[in-house]
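Good day; I would like, with your permission, to put a structural problem before you. The record follows directly beneath this note:
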Amino acid sequence: FVAGGLASTVRQWVLEVGEATTTKKQFENEKELLIRVAEVSREQAGRFILVRAEEGGGRGKRWILVGSRDGDGDLKPGTSVRIGRPNWEIEIEGETWSVGVQWERR
């Protein structure tokens, strides 16, 4: 990670989008994804969580889950996470990451 580099720019952009989106948005009538967590790590400031999904629904994807939620400290391997819209993919240093702004622990 280089301060002022591409990863830093993408990080800031993701955080700004997450802050601009309502965190209590309902998932009803939306296309949503359900993933099962295989690995989890947290950004030091607690503004996003990095997750690798198990094979299956998430197909081993890497996710950036923006914002904190009640109980996200309990997010650990084996936990299910529901991800609503908006969600999109970005490439960081040659790796594809999916970004989830509307998410909750199931």
